[in-house]
Specification:
By secondary structure, the protein is α+β, with helices and mostly antiparallel strands. It has one domain (14-80). It is 17% helix and 14% strand. The chain contains 2 helices and 4 strands. The strands form 2 sheets. Strands 1-2 form a two-stranded antiparallel ribbon. A two-stranded antiparallel sheet has the order 3-4. Strand 3 (64-65) and strand 4 form a beta hairpin. The longest helix has 8 residues, at 18-25. The radius of gyration is 12 Å and the shape is globular. The chain binds zinc ion (ZN). Zinc ion is lined by residues 6, 8-9, 11, 33, 46, 48-49.
Length: 86
């Protein structure tokens, strides 16, 4: 089932775990698209709008769960979508 689209850029949202959110916040990023509250321990976020918070400049970004249930990371996800220049 498809995830809802981001309200800012229309990209399909992904999800991150509580632990990943804690790890991200330790780096004090600006986060724009994070959901107000988690659902079953997973937070919905946009890998386009929050690509830097998700680790765009890291060799491997934080783990994100796509709508197919697969665990990916931001650089791989944007590449898979053909959006390297997003
Ligand atoms: Zn977005």
């Amino acid at each position: 089932m498809a995830n809802p689209k981001c309200k800012y850029c229309e990209l399909e949202t992904v999800e991150i775990s509580d632990q990943t959110l804690q790890d991200m916040r330790a780096m004090h990023p600006n986060i724009r698209s994070l959901a107000a509250r988690p659902k079953n321990g997973w937070w919905r976020i946009c890998a386009g709008c929050d690509q830097y918070a998700l680790g765009r400049e890291m060799t491997r970004g934080f783990p994100i769960r796509t709508s197919s249930g697969e665990i990916s990371e931001v650089n791989q996800l944007l590449a898979d979508l053909g959006l390297e220049d997003f």
